[in-house]
């Protein structure tokens, strides 16, 4: 993983994040499906990393994948996220991390047949983001 901009100790992260935020963002956990606050929201705005406030996704790329988590077809900028091979479940997946602080956001999947410009589904934990409404 390339060098991230925000470098904090795990103790600092524990102090700043709630236990659930820490479990997902810093320990690569997953929130329970169909429980996240942003799964079905249609608010226009910018989704930011809950740990460092970096811009990650825009509402224009959010779509309803009916998968239990918010889904986007691309990040707001290609350099906003890091994509890392993940074999933690005994199969190869692609983990998505914040490029600014290295926090775990979720996973990206390809070739699922969604009618999106990229044929990608960035499956992102709501607890890893905040939504900044833009009122557009």
Mean pLDDT: 93
What characterizes the major β-sheet? 6 strands, antiparallel
Question: Percent of residues in beta strands?
Answer: 25-35%
CATH C-level name:
Mainly Beta
The computed structural class is mainly beta
Overall, the morphology is globular
Structure annotation, total helices: 2
Superfamily (CATH H level) name:
Peptide methionine sulfoxide reductase
Explained architecture:
The protein has 136 residues and is mostly beta strands. It has one domain (10-133): Metal Binding Protein, Guanine Nucleotide Exchange Factor, Chain A. It has two helices and nine strands. The chain has helices spanning 10-16, 19-25, and strands at residues 45-49, 55-58, 62-63, 71-72, 81-86, 93-98, 104-110, 120-124, 129-133. The strands form two sheets. A six-stranded antiparallel sheet has the order 3-4-8-7-6-5, with no helix packed on it. Strands 2-1-9 form a three-stranded antiparallel sheet, with no helix packed on it.
Key attributes of the depicted protein:
136 residues; mainly beta; Metal Binding Protein, Guanine Nucleotide Exchange Factor, Chain A; 6-stranded antiparallel sheet; 3-stranded antiparallel sheet; globular
How do the strands and helices of this protein lay out in sequence?
Layout: H1 10-16, H2 19-25, E1 45-49, E2 55-58, E3 62-63, E4 71-72, E5 81-86, E6 93-98, E7 104-110, E8 120-124, E9 129-133
Antiparallel strand pairs: 1-2, 1-9, 3-4, 4-8, 5-6, 6-7, 7-8
């Amino acid at each position: 993983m390339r060098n991230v901009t925000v470098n904090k100790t795990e103790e600092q992260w524990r102090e700043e994040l709630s236990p659930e935020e820490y479990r997902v963002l810093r320990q690569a956990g997953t929130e329970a499906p169909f429980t996240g606050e942003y799964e079905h929201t249609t608010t226009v705005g910018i989704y930011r990393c809950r740990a460092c406030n970096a811009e990650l996704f825009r509402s224009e790329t959010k779509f309803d994948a009916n998968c239990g988590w918010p889904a986007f077809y691309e990040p707001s900028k290609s350099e906003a996220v890091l994509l890392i091979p993940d074999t933690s479940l005994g199969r190869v997946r692609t983990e998505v991390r914040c490029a600014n602080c290295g926090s775990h956001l979720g996973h990206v999947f390809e070739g699922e047949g969604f009618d999106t410009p990229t044929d990608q589904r960035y499956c992102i934990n709501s607890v890893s983001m905040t939504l900044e409404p833009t009122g557009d």
